[in-house]
Amino acid sequence: MKKYYITLSALLAFMSIYAQEQKDTSLEKQIMSQALAYGDADIATNSIYAIIAKEGVNSTYKDSLAYLYYGARNYSSCFMVCKDILSKDGNKQDILEMQAISLESLGALDKAAQSYAKLTVKSNNNFHAYKLANLYYGLKKYREGIMAINKADELKDTGKFNVSYAINKNHNQQVPLKAAIANLKGLIQFEMKDNTAAKASFERAIALHGDFVFAKENLQAIIDGKTVEDKK
To answer: Do 136 and 142 contact (CB within 8 A), yes or no?
Structure first.
């Protein structure tokens, strides 16, 4: 009986050590760090999958996997990872933003708008509200668009964001976000048949950025009784 007890104890001790070794992720983390240092995203991704397999469904390395897919512009996989993460913690704004960008890049604009709507509520960031309004404008949901762009206009501007407009094949114009917000507001107001308000918005966009090419063209179109366009 004593011999049996000693054998059983040894077996349990071995199993405990084996289980700890199986869950040890130090080697995978070293490989991942080295792969990232050398710019090998595939090896880094494989290492992260190995880490997640050992750590289980609550592994924080899922966040790292989402970032890797996002950086590689693998938006389909990025969306799937983000969806999994957010199902357990819906308050991660960086993950929610990657999900929104991934959906927009995949052409799922309605779902992208839903993600940006959630993100804007959590972040109170005027760039997120601008992105939401721009999606609604593209979807021709002008009532939702005007509410979103008004929200963007009301929120504090950090001055850190610019919006890029393609002037031609060789030149892009960088415009401060506040000016871009005013221009988009004008576009939405024009679609809502409020030309007076649209004209005022285009004028404000120009006042905020004097060289704003498309805002000038939109203002002139209003004056000439022509159609204004979103040329971003």
So the answer is: yes
Number of domains in the chain: 1
Which residue type occupies 5?
Answer: Y
Residue 172 is part of which domain span? 141-232
Give me the DSSP letters along 34-103.
Answer: HHHHTT-HHHHHHHHHHHHHHH-TT-THHHHHHHHHHHTT-HHHHHHHHHHHHHH-TT-HHHHHHHHHHH
Residue 162 is given by DSSP the state E
User: Is residue 58 predicted with pLDDT exceeding 70?
Assistant: yes
Residue 129 structure tokens = 């509200």
Q: Which two tokens stand for residue 84?
A: 């999994």
User: 230 is written with which tokens?
Assistant: 């979103």
Does residue 66 sit within a domain? no
Let me know if residue 113 belongs to a domain.
no
Residue 116 zone, left/alpha/beta (φ > 0; ψ -120 to 50; rest): alpha
Give the list of residues 6+ apart from residue 204 with CB closer than 8 angstroms, or none: 182
Q: Does residue 41 form part of some domain?
A: no
What would the pLDDT profile of 180-223 be if each residue is shown by its tens digit? 999 999 999 999 999 999 999 999 999 999 999 999 999 999 99
Torsion (CA) 170, 176, 179, 185 in degrees, nearest 10: 80
Contact present, 181 and 153 (Cβ < 8 Å):
yes
pLDDT at position 22 is 52
Residue 25 in any domain: the answer is no
Q: Which pLDDT score, from 0 to 100, does residue 168 have? A: 86
Predicted confidence at residue 230, as pLDDT, reads 67
Q: Strand locations in the chain, DSSP E?
A: 162-168, 171-176
CATH code of the domain covering residue 173? 1.25.40
